[in-house]
Amino acid sequence: MRVLPPAARACVLGAVLAAAACVTPALRPGSAVPWPAVGLLAALCLGCEAARVLPLRGRGAPEGTGPFPPVVLAAVFLLPPAAAALVALPGGLAQPAPQRPVAVRRIWHAAQQAVAAWAAGRAYGLLGGREALAGAAAFPYALLPAALAGLVFCLVLTALDAAVLAAAEGTRAAPGRRGPAPLPRPSSGTAPALAPYCLHGLVGLLMAVMWHSPYGPPAALLVLLPMYISCWVFAQYQREQAAHQATIRALVQAVDIKDRYTRGHSERVGQASAMIARELGMAGDRLEVVRIAGILHDVGKLGVPTRLLRKNGPLTPEERRVIELHPEYGHEMVRGIGFLGEARAAILHHHERVDGSGYPYGLSGEQIPEPARVVAVADAFDAMTSTRSYSRARPVRTALAELERGAGSQFDPAMVRALTAAIGRHGWHPVVTSDEDLPAVQAAAAGAGPREAGREGPPGMPAQGREAAGSPGQGKAGGP
């Protein structure tokens, strides 16, 4: 507890005391708690948690996901509130805690689950759920109480998460502090999603109905099995997606460290690429591919000598040819990353021009993959609206006018129109990731409306060096 800030310590202690108050009525003599059902459901909850973690061979499940919710909610529907809180404790204590303090984290998870189960049980009882479940037509009449109980369960978890995170992050934000927060944000986000908990509540209700059937607990387990398998598969998918995002972040951070003058450029190009793609009607996986292509378009700079990337002033023809190899370097680097899909082609071809005078292969028109044509416009737009060592930032309106002049020769006119329309509708509000960008963003905000939310920065070197490497004949509209 010493590593926790006082406010977070108080929050954890309060949750533990609340959990103790919730389970105490079940421990009193004469409480008439159905201990066999409590023991079976608690063991089932613990077993689901163990089975969820063990197949990962030591990697562990994400912290903050909690015990398998259908089992806890089935206990809420079958048992008194205090007994349901007892069922939630073992799974919470067994939940993985990859960071210190491990014991405090596990105690927190157990207390959080117990309090949420007790509150859901009280709501379920007050709404007449237990009477409906005991009746002949149990299922339809218990649906509404069960749904509201699942909602209460979700909201209590959300409130407790918000309280402890607010307490922990207040100290983490202190200047000079390093390392992870004592109680980091759960992997599922700032709050549990309502839709999954409604589904969990439905499965828990089905378990409870089957539990009361002539077939008893074994039938309830049959209801649980397919739900558990689907949740496990979905958890694996989430881990895979998290690994993909970590791979992308690592590559982008490596490029940003190597080329300090374009720090944040990758994220902004990804943002502009997504705006263009959305304007073109792309959605879902297709939109995500284009966004990732924008983020990773310059990953090949890792193969370019740092002295060239950081050079102040014009590049020689030999140096320009070296820098122009970065699309091919990037394509080779990501060739084995299967989930990138079409993004690999965009990385390779984002410096092609529609008139065929680009590089590396001189493709023209429709020969250039669509994601590459999107990224080319987004890349040039951010290059013009960002302050670099060799050029000063231009206002958004000026950059868009420059893109329009290059439409049909350097850029696909449809992509330029899409970016212009998207910025006209939503403005350009990039995420600032470099301290050097701050004065430029503030100046633009003071002197431009939504259509001119670009960045004006301090004067840089004349735009005759690296920008000229962008194309043989029209270098002003972007850099390499």
Automatic annotation (TrEMBL):
Domain HD-GYP stretches: 240-435
UniProt xrefs under PROSITE patterns: HD, HD_GYP, PROKAR_LIPOPROTEIN
Top-level taxon in the UniProt lineage: Bacteria
GO molecular-function term, one example from the UniProt record: hydrolase activity
CDD domains xref list: HDc
Keyword vocabulary terms for this entry: Hydrolase, Membrane, Signal, Transmembrane, Transmembrane helix
Pfam families, per database record: HD_5
Signal peptide start-end: 1-21
TM helices/strands, residue ranges: 35-56, 68-89, 143-168, 189-211, 217-235
Region (Disordered) location: 439-480
UniProt feature, compositional bias: Low complexity: 439-451
Domain HD: 262-384
Name assigned to this protein: Metal-dependent phosphohydrolase
